[in-house]
TrEMBL record:
Location in the cell: Membrane
InterPro entries membership: AA-Vitamin_Transporters, EamA_dom, EmrE-like
UniProt name for this protein: EamA family transporter
Entry annotated with the keyword tRNA-binding: no
Biological source species: Parasphingorhabdus cellanae
């Protein structure tokens, strides 16, 4: 979809370049980790791990690059991390640890991909090149494909829709708005996604939500929310998140 749209617009094939190397790898790791993690995780649980991990990684990248949080934002980061720890701690209602860690890796990769998009001057073109690069990396997975008999027409149709509409066109929109957002706003803008996934999991997939889910999610949402908080009358540092 992206290749057709951008190729037609520019009159030539849109191929990966050197500056798409890092975001293409991040997108590839995100997609692979996301796919394998959801083999063992419910929709709501996976989303609750994925998006906070991505948001926290964005915050950490900002810190490494010298964009330091305020004290209240530090408290929010620590609270969100504590929520993830509570959520993944061993117990009867704990999600599968390996699946949870793989999904956390997907979230971290999404954070790196989003950070790379902060400097995209041509979002659609950049997204297309990133997707082409990630697609080429996916060829490395061919030796690990399972039984071909498991591939069904319905699954192929859903995958095509997911790739062309909800991913390809959705990622163009995401890269288009990123340059206009601060790191914290970009991180917190996806807070509704786990809640939507949880609702969809309950209504459409018959999933149940445990007390651990509500406690962990409350801590995570509150923590991420604090990263956007500004004390009344407090003068924010120039490079504050």
């Amino acid at each position: 979809m992206l290749g057709l749209l951008l190729g037609f617009q520019h009159g030539r094939a849109v191929l990966p370049r050197g500056d798409t190397f890092v975001p293409a790898i991040a997108l590839f790791v995100y997609a692979v980790s996301f796919s394998y993690a959801y083999v063992s995780l419910d929709a709501a649980i996976g989303a609750l791990i994925l998006f906070p991990a991505g948001q926290l990684s964005l915050q950490m990248i900002g810190i490494v690059r010298g964009i330091y949080p305020t004290p209240i934002q530090w408290a929010g980061l620590l609270l969100a991390i504590a929520g993830l720890v509570v959520f993944l701690a061993p117990g009867d209602t704990a999600p599968p640890l390996i699946g949870g860690l793989i999904m956390a890796l997907a979230g971290i990769s999404w954070g790196f991909y989003s950070w790379a998009g902060k400097g995209a001057s041509r979002p659609a073109l950049t997204t297309t090149r990133n997707f082409f690069g990630a697609s080429l990396l996916c060829l490395l997975l061919i030796p690990f494909f399972g039984n071909a008999d498991q591939i069904q027409p319905t699954g192929i149709a859903l995958a095509v829709i997911s790739g062309t509409v909800t991913s390809g066109l959705g990622y163009i929109t995401w890269y288009a708005v990123l340059p206009r957002l601060s790191v914290s706003t970009a991180a917190a803008s996806q807070l509704s996604v786990p809640a939507i996934a949880a609702l969809g999991g309950v209504l459409l997939l018959g999933e149940t939500l445990s007390t651990r889910f509500f406690v962990g999610s409350a801590m995570i949402f509150a923590g991420i929310g604090l990263t956007m908080f500004k004390w009344p009358g407090f003068r924010m540092p120039r490079q504050s998140l």
